[in-house]
Inverse folding.
């Protein structure tokens, strides 16, 4: 199984898009996307300096554009799974078929501007906590009034919150841990970003997303999202919620992913995977320049699989959000009417139970998985009658 991953903020480097503009149509594409994002993506990806591309309002649409620009040159029809880190999830949503590229670029522009504005409300920041016992690190963050904004696995947790709290954490680091201040504008993925979440929600409400055409993992809990509107809701919530990349990597391992392509600016996610999944390391290609395209295409050819055609049955199907054992809600039988959002069961995973909800109303026509049946992400669990 092959996964294509889209990196997030912090992975950018000055001039990293320069070689990509030699490809036919690339510069024109970036200029069109620049109009949607409200920033000059050509300048930012080629001649802008490090300080300029650290600006959240500029960085976020730049990263989404870079991932999508490179992915246009890959045989994505053979890719089974996509995932993205933080803002990279907008790119992953496009690669999974949920959002058009123009929509993802526009959302990235709004997200970046609004998060930058939220950062200006009061002084906040972030710091990487490297090493130490996870429980001790989380306890230290709680003690100083900080949030675990990113849990990246491999002994890396990113703390976020007030400058006072970060100063205290640096002065009193957890046992066997090192604290490194990050050059960011504020406390991303924390309640400090609530104004940005509200603004993004207002724009996202006008989107009509499609159902994912391939497995798409969510940063919220590492599970596969099968429903377009739910994915958009998760993208909005992600602004104030922790990025659980550690759980995304566990799902990659659970699914037996054997090949990974990281889109530009590649390297950060590959490094995390190499440290976290060392015992079952997939083959990885970091797609940094067009010179890496032949290796990426070869990896996809060897590890990918042709996409399955969309089902034609006129039913709505509820699918598993995570790998585990399915337990339907007790007493819920075929023929009963379901309401939108009703819990119809749980998938019991190694990290605890994950709710399975009905995304549409109607009669429960048929159970497609039975009690204690092992299931994989995206596997059909129940059929809701009616027309799709």
């Amino acid at each position: 199984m092959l996964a294509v991953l889209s990196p997030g903020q912090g992975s950018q480097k000055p001039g990293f898009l320069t070689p990509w503009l030699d490809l036919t149509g690339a510069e024109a594409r970036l200029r069109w996307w620049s109009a949607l994002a409200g920033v000059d993506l050509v300048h930012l990806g080629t001649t802008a300096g490090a300080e300029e591309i650290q600006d959240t309002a500029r960085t976020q649409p730049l990263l989404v554009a870079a991932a999508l620009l490179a992915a246009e040159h890959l045989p994505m029809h053979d890719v089974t799974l996509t995932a993205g880190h933080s803002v990279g999830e907008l790119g992953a949503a496009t690669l999974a078929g949920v959002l058009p590229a123009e929509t993802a670029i526009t959302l990235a522009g709004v997200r970046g501007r609004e998060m930058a504005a939220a950062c200006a409300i009061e002084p906040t920041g972030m710091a990487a906590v490297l090493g130490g016992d996870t429980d001790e690190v989380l306890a230290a963050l709680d003690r100083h009034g900080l949030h675990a904004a990113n849990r990246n696995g491999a002994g890396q947790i990113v703390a976020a919150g007030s400058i006072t709290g970060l100063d205290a954490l640096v002065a009193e680091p957890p046992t066997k841990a090192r604290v490194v201040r990050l050059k960011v504008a504020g406390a991303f993925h924390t309640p400090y970003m609530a104004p940005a979440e509200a603004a993004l929600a207002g724009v996202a409400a006008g989107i009509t997303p499609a159902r994912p055409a391939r497995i798409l993992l969510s940063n919220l809990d590492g599970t596969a999202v099968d429903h377009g509107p739910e994915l958009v809701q998760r993208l909005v919530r992600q602004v104030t919620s922790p990025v659980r990349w550690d759980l995304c990597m566990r799902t990659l391992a659970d699914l037996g992913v054997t090949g990974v392509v990281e889109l530009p600016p590649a390297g950060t996610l590959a490094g995390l995977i190499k440290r976290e999944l060392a015992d079952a390391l997939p083959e990885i290609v970091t797609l940094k320049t067009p010179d890496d395209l032949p290796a990426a295409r070869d990896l996809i050819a060897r590890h990918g699989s042709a996409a399955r055609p969309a089902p034609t049955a006129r039913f709505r199907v509820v699918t598993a959000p995570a790998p585990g054992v399915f337990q339907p809600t007790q007493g819920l039988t075929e023929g009963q009417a379901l309401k939108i959002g009703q819990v119809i069961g749980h998938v019991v995973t190694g990290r605890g139970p994950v709710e399975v909800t009905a995304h549409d109303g109607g009669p429960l026509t048929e159970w497609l998985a039975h009690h204690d049946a092992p299931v994989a992400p995206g596997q059909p669990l129940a059929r809701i009658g009616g027309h799709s």
